[in-house]
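Team,

Forwarding the record for the chain on the shared tracking sheet. I've put the sequence and predicted structure together so nobody has to dig through attachments.
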Amino acid sequence: MELKKLDVPTSSITEVKKSPMDVFAQARKEGTGVYIFNREKIAGVMLTQEQYEELLEELTDLRDKQYQPVEHELPVPEELEELADALRSAVSKGSVVSARYLDERMVAMGFITKKTGFGGVTEMLRELTETGKIIYQLRRRENNKIIYAEIVAELEELPRGTDKVFIRKVNLIER
C-alpha cells in the first residue's frame, strides 16, 4: 500500500504547542492554510488572520452573487405557484408574528431553519435589523434551481425581549 503525500503544508499538534507562531509563519510563507495532524488524523487547519478574512470575504461575495435581493414583489414561476400559495397562506402580508412562529412555519413548508443554538432567533433578528428582510432557502431544489423565500419585514417596537415582526412582503426567488 502506497502512502499519498499531501500537496499542502502540514504540521503536528506538538509543533503547534511548541511554537504556534512558526505554524502561522509557515501558512503566511506558503500562502495557504497548514493542516494540523493529531495522531495521523487531521485535527484542523491553521490560517493567518489575513487568510481567514480573505476566505470570509470570498464567501460573502459568493453568497451575494448567488442571491440578489429584489425591491418589489416578483411574478412567481408557474412551477412554484403551489408553493407560493402555501407560503401566502402560512405567512400573510400585513400580519404580526413572533420570529419563532415565522421560523416554524417556514420549516414546516420545507425551508431551512434560521434558528441557532437552542431555538434562538438572535441571528434571524439581526439579519432583519440589518437588511430589512429574512432570507430562507428551500431544502429541495426545483428544476435544478435553488429556491429562496425573501420575507420583507420590520421588527415591532415592543418591550425588550419580544420578537414580533410585521410582514410587509413575501417573494419567492429561484436561482
